[in-house]
Amino acid sequence: MPPARSTIVRGIEQVRERRKGMELRIQQLSKHFKDKKAVDEVSFTLTAGVWGLLGANGAGKTTLMRMIADLTAPTSGAVFYDGIEIRKMGETYRNLFGYLPQDFGYSRDFTVKDYLEYMAALKDVPIKETAGRIERLLELLTLSEVRGEKIAKLSGGMRRRVGIAQAMLNEPKVLVMDEPTAGLDPGERVRFRNLISEFSHDRIVLISTHIVSDVEYIASRNAIMKAGRIVDIGTTQELVRQIEGKVWEGAVSVEDLTEYEKRLRVVSRRDEGHGLVFIRYLSEKPELPKSATVPPRLEDLYLWLFPQTVLEKEGN
Ligand SMILES: Nc1ncnc2c1ncn2[C@@H]1O[C@H](COP(=O)(O)OP(=O)(O)OP(=O)(O)O)[C@@H](O)[C@H]1O
Question: What spacing in Å lies between the alpha carbon of 58 and ligand 1's midpoint?
């Protein structure tokens, strides 16, 4: 027997409800500081999932994120959440939004727990849910043991994790994080990635980072920013296609390494013992005898697009 019409209608409503708000449209967004175009006519649409925002220093990532957070007014253009301009949503947007700035503000006297309680109140988290959410986040971010410590006394990595916790307190539909992994050690990075992967189901998460491998593992899409503009957008596989056949690996002797590093765009090196070092480098053609092309990764593309960059690696 076919399902009753009322069941079908309810099903359609449920699907609509789930999808509602699952789109953040950035439309011709610009921000000028005097004659500096920090963000220059950026347009793209964020949908549910993790998005990586990659770009060299000064590319405009923070300025773009601050406009998405409704903290900086655009010079022109707008951001729409589910079709409504965020600047007109006020409190409603703030309640469904979470933001981790590069430096988050906190009073020096706050303990971790006091601060999170204070932030929960600011974000209108229902009182009866506050304690449970704080406990869960403290545990997920391995902060339980320092809950009574003053934030000012914590290490940089711990402080960053408190920042991540406050951004996630209101279980936001849109979570924007500016360099969330700065200062985290390799183990904390893995935990962060797992946490975000799980959290991003049915939510929009935008992460800017210099550590390309952090987003390579979890981002379903990446937007690459250069001089205020989005120059490329797509899945990692789509993005790296442009450098297929341009990433090589080959062996050099330890004595010649410095010379090759001066001459080639070396992405990474691996000591093989016996006086040999394997180098991974970018080039239109092979530059070493017995070089072979290898499948490109996101960090290869990053170095290709931003040659002046020294890649920051996990654990550095
Ligand atoms: N308040 C401001 N006044 C003047 N110029 C600014 C201001 N904020 C940013 N800029 C300039 O706009 C450009 C983009 O800066 P932004 O901080 O957005 O880049 P970014 O990609 O986040 O860099 P980083 O990775 O170093 O944080 C830079 O040239 C910066 O100097």
Answer: 5
The DSSP element (H or E) to which 273 belongs, if any, is: strand 265-273
- Please list the helix, strand and coil fractions of the chain in percent, rounded to the nearest 5, in that order: 40, 30, 35
Q: Which helix (H) or strand (E) holds 278?
A: strand 276-282
Assess whether 31 and 114 both reside in one domain.
yes
CA of residue 177 to ligand 1 center, whole Å = 16
Q: What pTM value is reported for the model?
A: 0.86
The ipTM value here is 0.96
Structural domain containing residue 85: 20-240
- The rounded Cα 121 to chain-centroid distance in angstroms is 26
Tokens of 190: 């893995």
Residue whose Cα lies nearest atom 18 of ligand 1: it is 60
Q: How many residues does the chain have?
A: 316
Q: The domain spanning residue 202 has which CATH number?
A: 3.40.50.300
| Domain match, 110 and 171 both | yes
